[in-house]
Design a protein that fits this description.
With 305 residues, this protein is α/β, with parallel strands linked by helices. The chain is built from 11 helices and 9 strands.
């Protein structure tokens, strides 16, 4: 039995196989329509979510399976003091696979150590968000045709952004990937990412504060929101929330084939006028999230079609 806690749980070869499966699901959805008949997915979401939770549910329903679960800690026995370990033991009696989101780093890992069914980390605090990373990799590979030889700009909240941390960890395994890290000083990437991931692996990166300076050289721009829920005080959030806003005029500085990605939800960091730009791929990205989660469910359940 396998779990998914981090993008690094899959080798590059396994990732390629997973992404190939996701592409096949996109092309031939009817082939997979009954692959999980009789199987149940439990969605244990202790934090609010739209895309991640609904895309997991859509993925399982598209595979012919069924879904049960809860959408906030308040609506589960966690509100009565039940531990994650006890919750997953109970969930294991009801479902075949579980997707878990939790505000505390490492919660999904604790659950996986006590679970008798595969557990998928659907986001743990500011730490990891591996299925968003799989979605990002599938989107880049499908639309750019490659995951190597790219310059990717990561912009916004690089300190608390778990999607950014997971994506950096995943992309360093591909050849000639250069990172441009765009953030205010207060929201720079954590030291452990800079030292233990980028520098330790001799990965080329630059840090800068102005988005306009980075735009001309980017193949991919990954925008993120400043996350109100990660801040300790409202003043810091208000000061930084509109630090970056991607506009039509800024897009004129970019390459004709640059992709704009965003894990969503967006607040103000991408102007709605950018939505009509053919380079804006964030809603396609959300669709790719369903395909990759379908592929992941099949892989962890060991179902071959």
């Amino acid at each position: 039995m396998r779990h998914l806690m981090s993008p690094l749980d899959f080798s590059v070869e396994e990732l390629d196989k997973l992404l190939d499966l996701a592409n096949d699901i996109e092309k031939y959805p009817e082939k997979y329509a009954h692959a999980c008949a009789g199987k149940k997915l439990a969605t244990c979401f202790y934090e609010p979510s739209t895309r991640t939770r609904l895309s997991f549910e859509a993925a399982m329903l598209n595979l012919g399976g069924s879904v049960l679960g809860f959408h906030s800690g308040d609506s589960s026995s966690a509100s009565k003091g039940e531990s994650v370990s006890d919750t997953i033991r109970v969930i294991s009696c009801y479902a075949d696979i579980c997707a878990m989101r939790h505000p505390k780093e490492g919660a999904a890992l604790v659950a996986s150590s006590k679970s008798s069914i595969p557990v998928i980390n659907a986001g743990d605090g500011g730490h990891q968000h591996p299925t968003q990373t799989l979605t990002d990799l599938l989107t880049i590979r499908s639309l750019k045709g490659r995951l190597d030889n790219i310059t990717i700009g990561l912009c916004g909240d690089l300190k608390f952004g778990r999607t950014v941390h997971s994506l950096i960890n995943a992309l360093i395994r591909y050849e000639n990937v250069k990172f441009v890290l765009i953030s205010p000083e207060e929201l720079r990437i954590p030291d452990y990412i800079r030292e233990d991931v980028l520098k330790a692996n001799n990965i080329e990166y630059v840090e800068m504060e102005h988005l306009e300076d980075a735009m001309p050289e980017l193949d991919v721009l990954y925008m993120t929101r400043v996350q109100r829920e990660r801040f300790f005080n409202e003043e810091d959030y208000i000061r930084l929330k509109d630090f970056y806003i991607l506009t039509k005029s800024k897009m004129e500085l970019a390459k004709d084939d640059m992709l704009v990605l965003h894990p969503l939800p967006r607040v103000n960091e991408i102007s709605v006028e950018v939505d009509d730009d053919p380079r804006a791929a964030y809603f396609k990205q959300a669709q790719y999230g369903v395909y990759v989660r379908m592929a992941l469910i099949l892989t962890l359940l060991g179902i071959e079609v």
